[in-house]
Each structure stands twice: as C-alpha cells, then as structure tokens.
Known about the structure:
Radius of gyration: 18 Å
Order of helices and strands: EHEHEHHEHEHHHEHHH
CATH superfamily of the domain at 27-212: P-loop containing nucleotide triphosphate hydrolases
Amino acid sequence: MESAPHIYVDPVSLPSNAQRCDEEKPIFVFPLGRGNRGKTMFTRWAVEEAFNAGREVTVADGDCTNQTLSAYFKDVLSPSSADQVTVTKWFETLLEAQIEIRKSLIIDFGAGDRTLKHAAQDLSLVSLLKDCGITPVAIHFVGPDPDDLAYLQSFETDRLFVPDATIIVYNQFAIPSHIPQPAAFSESIAQSDVITQVLSRDGEIVVMPTLGCAHEIDRRRIGFIEAADGRTKGDLPPLSLFDRQRSRLWRDKMEKAFSDVTGWLP
Length: 266
C-alpha cells in the first residue's frame, strides 16, 4: 500500500501569522551545552518540525559570532552586537515580547555564553516565566566527556536554572570513533550525581542519533526535509539516493527519540 503523500512546508516561506492553539501554554526552549554537542542541529530539527506541522515558533540566535540559524530560517532574531550589555538587554526585551504575544520561542546561545545564567540568577527566571504562564524547557546536550557534566552542574548548582521540563540529550555524534557506542555513556556519565539529580525530579534522557550526511546538508544550507526530498541550493547537486534515505531515516529516529518529550517542544 502506498503511503500518504508527505506535505512539506518550507520554513523560509512560512507565513508569519501561522496560528497555534490558544489553549496551549507558550514554550520557551533553551538548548544548553558545550560547543559541538548538537544544540544548533537539534534547534534546526525542532523548528523545522514545528513549521512543517503548522505551529508557530520564534527563532532566536544569541551567538553573534556564528549566526547559523539565519541561513535556514527567515526572521531569526539576534542581538546587534556581542557586547554583554547589549545581549542582556536584547534577551530581556525578547522574552518580554514573547510573553506579551503568547508565542513559543527557541533560543540558541553560543557555547560559554553566560546570558541565561545571569538572568536566572538575577531574576529567578524559571519562577518568573511560570508566573507569566510560560513553560520553560532546559535541554542539556552531553557527550561522553565528563567535562560536559561540569557545564550541566553549573546550572544545577543552587538550582540556578532547573525547570520542571529538563531534558538530558546524549548526542551519539559526539562519541569518538574509538569508543563503542554502548560504552560511551557509562557509569561516569549515566550514573553521575548530576544526572541522577535531574532524573530524580522527573527529568528525561534522550539519545540523539547521528546523521552521517549532516555535513553535506550543511554545505547546501538546506533543511532536513528538503534533503530527504532531493532539494538543493546553489550549484551543488541534490544529495545522493543513499544520503536522501539517511536523512529520512534520521528524521524518523529523531521523532522516535523525542516522542516522550514532545509536550516540551514548540
């Protein structure tokens, strides 16, 4: 039996007035972690899936030095400079505007950025957002390096930023080739005190699959659905038959991997 045709919505051309159910609380998603741990790739996937389903979400890129998201989506919001005072003011103005218009948000900061930490400390940000009817979501991206846990611990210490909706993402892409995948997130990671602490308050763990042709998709600056459908940009040819299939299978794996936390995604 033939499957139903897939309906594709180009995220770059999505109308800005796309509607979302009024009964749902807006969701503010904060992907967190060290560099090269999958934050931006996840953000692209989550935004694309939301747009493809007709859900509205504001996309913000707080990394002034490497604004990748604007290559994939239109109307990406970002600060005018990397000056910390400017970024902080931009961040507060952005949150206030999103609270006012009741629209979900996903914001990707660069590795090492301290804007969220400062806001969490100065404003009791989780409580503030919840009081405003917003669901804050922290998504921590972790590789097999124990140093990744130090970044996570910096948010967990003194409950600096610990929303009820907290997800730990084990990114398979970050596993070195010489380490077997089953052993990568062994006792030093999975049974660490900080992971146990997150799970004790009903946090969730998700294993993020690897997309082998991700670099080819990045070269073309196309979305994952575009890649699977054989679309391309510029002078580069579409992905090969096999890479298109890898893209389709990866999307299926991502949907399955995040199926238990879809209520925490925009």
